[in-house]
């Protein structure tokens, strides 16, 4: 059971982030058309953002009055950012960085292989089979069905698709 007199890990930071977001949204709502009348286009967004600012202020003040637990650092990493979540965040960041240079197929293959192996916790062969199937399915849906252009990178994807098109198109003529 959670003790309501003690702050939970990350509560203070979350309160301040919500306050900053609320103030930003309030400013954006004001920019819509100012506050000229209750029927103006910005009136409802301004009122909603104003309620968010007030609520966030109440939360920040209440959090400031509550006491912190003794082991804040351990609690933070146990409850908010466990090691597996930190590894997945790092993996996503690396994937985003190398996607354009390596291309969709190799970077997605490596990303999926590592992620599935970490999260599924089965053999490497099982992870390879799942990764290959998922990559083929994703590629077929997005590249061939929806015709979304994916980052090519080091795999000569256009040449392969042109060769396959000529291979199958030549037999129909």
Automatic annotation (TrEMBL):
Segments forming domain DUF1468: 13-151
One Pfam family recorded for the sequence: TctB
InterPro entries: DUF1468 (IPR009936)
Keyword rRNA-binding belongs to the record: no
Keyword Transmembrane helix (UniProt): yes
Record's protein name: Tripartite tricarboxylate transporter TctB family protein
Alphabetical UniProt keywords: Membrane, Transmembrane, Transmembrane helix
Signal peptide interval: none
Transmembrane segments annotated in the record for this chain: 12-30, 42-64, 76-98, 104-120, 127-150
Organism superkingdom: Bacteria
């Amino acid at each position: 059971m959670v003790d309501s007199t003690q702050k939970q890990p990350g509560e203070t930071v979350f309160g301040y982030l919500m306050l900053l977001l609320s103030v930003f949204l309030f400013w954006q709502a004001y920019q819509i058309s100012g506050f000229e009348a209750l029927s103006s286009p910005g009136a409802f967004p301004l009122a909603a953002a104003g309620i968010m600012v007030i609520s966030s202020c109440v939360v920040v003040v209440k959090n400031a009055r509550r006491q912190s637990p003794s082991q804040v650092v351990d609690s933070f990493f146990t409850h908010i950012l466990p090691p597996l979540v930190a590894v997945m965040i790092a993996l996503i960041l690396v994937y985003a960085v190398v996607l354009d240079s390596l291309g969709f197929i190799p970077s997605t293959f490596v990303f999926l292989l590592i992620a599935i192996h970490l999260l599924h916790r089965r053999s490497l062969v099982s992870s390879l089979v799942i990764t290959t199937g998922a990559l083929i399915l994703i590629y077929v849906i997005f590249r061939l069905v929806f015709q979304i252009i994916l980052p090519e990178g080091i795999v000569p994807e256009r040449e392969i698709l042109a060769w396959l098109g000529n291979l199958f198109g030549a037999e129909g003529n």
